Amino acid sequence: QVQLVESGGGLVQPGGSLRLSCAASRSIFSIDAMAWYRQASGKYRDLVAQITSGGSTNYADSVKGRFTISRDNAKNTVYLQMNSLKPEDTDVYYCNARYGFGDYWGQGTQVAVSS
């Protein structure tokens, strides 16, 4: 089993920034990929950003140029730096870790962008 603990969500004004963190209970050094998804109530969970074991990144078109995913293997943590936030970025953000032996999710952290 792997536990993922997210933090860093909150309320921010449009144009502001937040950094989400996701700490894993196991090493992420050889993980297949880690990612951030987001989901609004009653909607599908959509991929926001992904980083692979080799360091390749992939972003949803709606966040390209504004969000950056990164990882710190020493801390078993993945980050999502979110800049130039917009009201439409308001969602619950979930961390996902894909290991060779299983797929795991965090509990979610709320991000609200409003003036």
What is the tally of beta strands? 11
Mean of all residue-level pLDDT scores: 94
| Cα end-to-end separation | 40 Å
Note the total helix count. 0
Shape: globular
Describe the sheet with the most strands.
7 strands, mixed
What low-confidence regions span 5 or more consecutive residues with pLDDT below 50? none
Structural class: mainly beta
Element-level helix/strand string: EEEEEEEEEEE
Report Rg.
13 Å
List keywords for this structure.
115 residues, mainly beta, 4-stranded antiparallel beta sheet, 11 strands, globular
Protein architecture, described:
By secondary structure, this protein is mainly beta. The protein has strands spanning 4-7, 10-12, 18-24, 33-39, 46-52, 57-59, 67-72, 77-82, 91-99, 102-105, 109-113. Strands 2, 4, 5, 6, 9, 10 and 11 form a seven-stranded mixed β-sheet that branches. Strands 1-3-8-7 form a four-stranded antiparallel β-sheet, with no helix packed on it. β5 and β6 form a beta hairpin. The termini are far apart.
Summarize the structure.
The protein has 115 residues and is an all-beta fold.
Topology:
Blueprint: E1 4-7, E2 10-12, E3 18-24, E4 33-39, E5 46-52, E6 57-59, E7 67-72, E8 77-82, E9 91-99, E10 102-105, E11 109-113
Parallel strand pairs: 2-11
Antiparallel strand pairs: 1-3, 3-8, 4-5, 4-9, 5-6, 7-8, 9-10, 9-11
